[in-house]
Design brief:
Number of domains: 1
Number of strands: 2
Order of helices and strands: EHHEHH
Helix content: 40-55%
Shape: globular
Number of helices: 4
Strand content: 5-15%
Distance between the termini: 19 Å
CATH topology: Multidrug-efflux Transporter Regulator, Chain: A, Domain 2
Oligomer: single chain
CATH class: Mainly Alpha
Length: 77
């Protein structure tokens, strides 16, 4: 079986909010406005790393560098 790449992994709502550095309340605001792309299998929201990085690039004057390294550290991978 091929090992899943970190960029293909789906994150939970809590993980995605933490990754972006948002409070849950602010994250929900962006989510409800449709600015953050998500998948919703069943009842749970899921977010790909690339979707969150795309959001940050659209909302930041300078794109964040080292995002994959940051998520690897947070996931202790």
């Amino acid at each position: 079986m091929e090992q899943e790449r970190i960029t293909d992994r789906y994150m939970t709502l809590e993980e995605a909010a933490q990754y972006l550095g948002f409070s849950r309340r602010n994250f929900d605001r962006y989510l409800k406005s449709g600015e953050i792309k998500f998948s919703c299998p069943g009842r749970a929201y899921r977010f790909k790393l690339e979707w969150l990085d795309e959001f940050m690039e659209r909302h930041s004057a300078s794109p964040k560098l080292g995002r994959v390294d940051a998520i690897l550290e947070r996931l202790n991978v």
